[in-house]
Write a structure and sequence with these properties.
single chain, mainly beta, Neuraminidase, five-stranded antiparallel β-sheet, four-stranded antiparallel β-sheet, 31 strands, 35% strand, globular
Length: 503
């Protein structure tokens, strides 16, 4: 026992010296105050120093770490609305347990490392949160072999300890998945899941029973541009021809909200609705004169239209009083006011785009980024001033974002991520083949690693891993061929009790 303690103490001492040597060798600029991150700097530095020993120990040499954990026990306490269950002056409590067995005959090491629980000032999320048991450490976790479960069966992910439930059952060559859209496939109370069956159309599933409620028979202008109401769990919105349409999934009836007569075609709802479910952002083609950007309020009709020269998508903010236009050619985004007039704030974007809002009621534009040091699977830009913040990326200890990464955003401070895997397990890294969740409820975003998606590398469009998160963050859905390449089903991770609403 004493020998083990001496070994650990020495290893941590060496790792600490390595960390400080690395920091000293870099040209780190002098600290300047920042109104967003300043109060959290000391807490973040403490977490870095505590975790550094374990991180360097894992990555040192050729040994790879496979982590196996017990199933997560779901917290019985419902965290409720996002502005409850927080503390302004909480203390950080980070615990870490690790065991190491080594023999003379083998140079490989298999560690069972911690699932950390932190109640931190920087996060603002209390210790009774349903995410407490989820993995937050940034260490390599290789997917172990796991048989594909039967429909309705639950299996435990060996690397992350979460419970994964198979929701659908398709035949060889078929796929039923969430669509590639930043909007959530879950309805407002997380009871229903909107999926797309390849070659057939949109299909509704009961999340609790895994029962298909049948094809909806809708014909939107684009299969990806169908959006749940953030407040009514029965209603969908989409565009067809020149009409903006609401669709009741219970009665299977459509209602035309407005007909946009100036359009010559190409009408599409281009983003999820505002969080109160009232404001729709849309775009259409004008005959030989460019495009028309449209703001429609369900409570009051079409409020604003603006002619636009460039083709792109219009995104409505959670509050419904600001918009972001993203030029499809250049990827440049521009913030607009409620009348679609420019506010002089520009920023670059890549990949999937969406809007979110944090616990401080600040609104953010979210996307992936492949731009230098700020590259990340999830990068967000504050609408007020264009300030850029990396949530999951190089600046937060994660690798460069893999190509083909999918995002899922919901009318709540959560972003789900699903990244593709690789063939060679010897080269496996953090993010590879993973489903993650960014929690933006606190002053600084927190990343939780949820499960391996077990998607075969280099599969076709419908067999890649699409992802969706529910409003309360209680459920995550992702699609997977489970490494076979012959079919793609949808799986659900139940993280805790669900509550409806967006705040």
């Amino acid at each position: 026992m004493a020998d083990n303690e001496d070994f650990v103490e020495a290893a941590l001492h060496r790792a600490g010296e390595d960390v400080f040597g690395e920091v000293s060798s870099r040209g780190v600029p002098d600290f300047s105050p920042n109104r967003r991150t300043g109060p959290a700097v000391l807490g973040m530095l403490a977490v870095l120093l505590v975790g550094a020993g374990a991180f360097f120990a894992v990555r040192d040499g050729s040994a790879r770490t496979v982590v196996e954990t017990e199933p997560i026990g779901v917290t019985a306490t419902d965290p409720g609305p996002f502005d409850e269950g927080r503390t302004e002056n909480s203390t950080e409590d980070s615990t870490e347990d690790s065991t190491e067995d080594s023999t003379e005959e083998s140079t490989s090491t298999e560690d069972s490392t911690e699932d950390s629980t932190e109640d931190s000032t920087e996060s603002g999320v209390s210790s009774d949160d349903m995410f407490d048991s989820l993995v937050r450490t940034v260490d390599v976790r290789i997917p172990n072999t796991l048989d594909r479960p039967a429909v309705g069966e639950v299996v435990v992910d060996p690397a992350f300890g979460t419970s994964v439930r198979r929701l659908t059952d398709v035949g060889v060559g078929e796929a039923v998945t969430p669509v590639q859209s930043p909007a959530s496939a879950f309805n407002a109370d997380a009871s229903l899941l909107l999926l797309y069956r390849q070659g057939a159309g949109h299909e509704l599933y009961d999340v609790e029973t895994a029962e298909s409620l049948g094809l909806l028979g809708i014909e939107p202008s684009d299969i990806e541009q169908v959006y749940w109401s953030p407040v009514d769990p029965e209603v969908l919105f989409f565009a067809r021809d020149l009409d903006l349409i609401s669709f009741n999934t219970t009665t299977r009836t459509s209602t035309v909200l407005d007909t946009i007569d100036p359009c010559s075609g190409g009408l599409a709802i281009t983003s999820p609705l505002s969080w109160d479910g009232d404001t729709i952002a849309a775009r259409c083609t004008l005959q030989d004169v460019g495009y028309l950007l449209i703001v429609h309020q369900i409570s009051g009709g079409t409020e604003a239209t603006v002619r636009w020269a460039e083709f792109g998508d219009l995104y409505v903010s959670p509050d419904g009083d600001r918009f972001v236009f993203v030029d499809a050619r250049s990827g440049e985004a521009e913030v607009l006011n409620e009348y679609l007039q420019p506010l002089g704030i520009f920023f670059p974007t890549d990949g999937s785009n969406a809007m979110t809002r944090d616990a401080l009621d600040e609104e953010w534009f979210v996307s992936s980024s492949f731009d230098g040091d700020s590259s990340g699977s999830v990068v967000r830009v504050r609408l007020d001033d264009g300030e850029r913040e990396t949530a999951i990326g190089l600046l937060t200890g994660y690798p460069y974002p893999p190509g083909g990464t999918r995002l899922g955003v919901v009318p709540a401070p959560f972003v789900a991520v699903s990244a593709p895997g690789i063939e060679d397990l010897d080269q496996w890294d953090v993010l590879d083949g993973e489903v993650l969740l960014m929690d933006g409820r606190g002053a600084s975003p927190i990343t939780y690693r949820i499960a391996h998606n077990r998607v075969s590398p280099s599969t076709d469009y419908f067999h890649s891993s699409f992802v969706a998160v529910s409003h309360g963050g209680c459920r995550i859905a992702f699609s997977s061929d489970w490494g076979t390449g012959d079919r793609a089903d949808t799986y659900v991770v139940d993280l805790g009790p669900c509550s409806s609403g967006t705040r």
